[in-house]
Amino acid sequence: MDKLSPPAKLNTSGDASAQWRAFRQTFELYLKAPGDSSKSEEQQVAILLTIGGPELLDVYNTLEFGPASEQCPHPEYAIKKVLEKLDEHFAPKQNEVYARYVFRCRTQKKQETFESFVTDLKLKARDCNFGTERNKMIRDQIVFGTNDEKARADMLKTEDPSLEKVIKICTAHEVTKSQLKAFKTEQSMTKEESDEINSVKRRYAKGKAVKNTESAAANGPNMDLKTCRYCGTVHVFAKIKCPAWGQKCKKCGKENHFAKQCKTKPKVHAVLESSTDEEILAVTRKNTKEGIYIILERRDSKEKIKFQVDSGASVNIIPSKHVLQEELEATGTTLKVYNGMTLTPKGKCRLHLRNPGTGKKYSIEFVVVSEDLAPLLGRATSEKMGLISVNYELVSAVQTGVTEPNNVTKKFPDVLTDGLGRFPGTVKLTVDETVTPVVTPSYKVPVNIKQQLKEELHNLENKGIIAKVDEPTPWVSRMVVARKKSGELRICIDPQALK
Predict the structure, then answer these.
(1) How far apart are CA 89 and CA 59, in angstroms?
(2) CATH number of residue 313's parent domain
(3) % of the chain with per-residue pLDDT over 90
(4) Could you tell me if 53 and 101 lie in one domain?
(5) CB neighbour list of residue 472: distance below 8 Å, 6 or more residues apart
(6) Considering its fold, how many domains does the chain have in total?
(7) What is the pTM of this model?
(8) How far is 185 from 156, CA to CA, in rounded Å?
(9) Which residues have a Cβ under 8 Å from the Cβ of 480 and sit 6 or more positions away?
């Protein structure tokens, strides 16, 4: 008992009944500790009142224990009698309807663990008098109140699940999310020589911004301490650790850095990139001498970065390892690699660079990606920086003979008639039965083309090119819509799953 810390004092603020139940359970465990079997009942009552604190002592002094008897000459010192009287005093005035209302309103909070959520549900169920339906009621509330939509979907798919089953499902989902987060934050930094061919299409989604969900606030034991370029002190590279975060610079008026670290210059050659539909064809060979490269220096951190100059690219790309979390801004850009793989940028940023060869300074906007791609300078940026030049006067148009359409239609009148025409017979497509069918979710259609898309689909249906399907089908490919330069819509499917 001498080495065992006593329980905390009883605090009757809030739910006094729940506080007393928790205190009594802790006290009884305390009495069962080694070395206390010889304590008399009077000593046990003294221990109870001492560790319970002044609030419990005041309650004890108001209790009436009744007359003494031969079996219990001093009821006020009988530990069982004292605990019974305290139970009666702290017993809540039960209201079953209200208790069930509180139970039904209980949902899992945003950052709350599932274990904490289900434990609190079980505690609240004690006052609801559910009887034999207790487990089913708790099971239902877990399904209603969980904040994990995927776990809820799995529970609804399970036929008549038990309480143990839904707890197992939710626990598995929580553990899986934690493991996936660990995979995401502990990426390997090993660099391997590789050839990468990137064909990236950049599209802007109207009214939609990419939210950066990753946080740089994690402060692990293996993180290096470095001199911060924003405050000038030494700390872990995390915005919550930087004293300049949220502060306004007295020199330039911008936020998140101190004036002594401000890099604002009177005049900078600005390079701007803006496009709504751009194509990037970049052939990158890492750790080789092939291709055209230039080394630029970051003006703030003096970091030297090797960029590939690509005259066929129309956007600038940089991996996230060269950019701090607090430098990122939201972007509505979507990057799609030529093989169908979609890359979701972490955001965009503007870097202040210097050409060590010429001494010129530039402010360039980059799209930031998680993948370890080679840093890339697009055509427009490279041309404005003077890295490449195009002799437009040497470019000539190549003209070829064009056959008059009327001559072709006159020569083949039985083939070239009005309309699209239709081949005779029926085509049967054979599908490998061993392949699992895939139902691909559809893209959201921009509001400004919805009506035009609906009219075009009706037109194609009327011409017999497509047919409306009103029943389930094992294979579904998502529709891809693009606007042509003429204003018409190009409608096709994304066959990625079919490949």
Answers:
(1) 8
(2) 2.40.70.10
(3) 10
(4) no
(5) none
(6) 5
(7) 0.30
(8) 31
(9) 443, 491, 492, 493, 494
